[in-house]
Structure prediction request, 143 residues.
Amino acid sequence: MGEVRIEDWVLNIELEKTKELYASHTELCDCLFCENFRQASFLLQDEVVHFCDALGLNLHKPSLLNAFPVEGEQVMYSGHYSVYGEIIEGELDAWDVVVGEHCFSLVQEEGKNASALIEPHFQIGFEVVFNWLLPKSMELIEK
Prediction:
């Protein structure tokens, strides 16, 4: 494990194991909201890409993804990424790390949403608002 410090977080991460987790996740949701998320993720600022690389995350494959249409042609996405390792320091649910347009938080895994990972792991939650980039109108999807 390697120690990673990000603002007030101190994390002990199994980087290669986390990368392997995302490499093995080959099934992707094909709904338009998820497709829009993946397309928008290709346009992110370098600082967000570096943040996720330091943690072994694949931006295009969150462990959980929710989409909420907001005003205009935008979608607020929230969800989390799973990371092998442990939290040494950092407040849960604080939404205290802002990188580019993303807001990140260490989140508590609970109940039936708990993942099937057995080895020590934790989750990093995120929220971000992306523009609707796909040619199909978002209004048609909601109806």
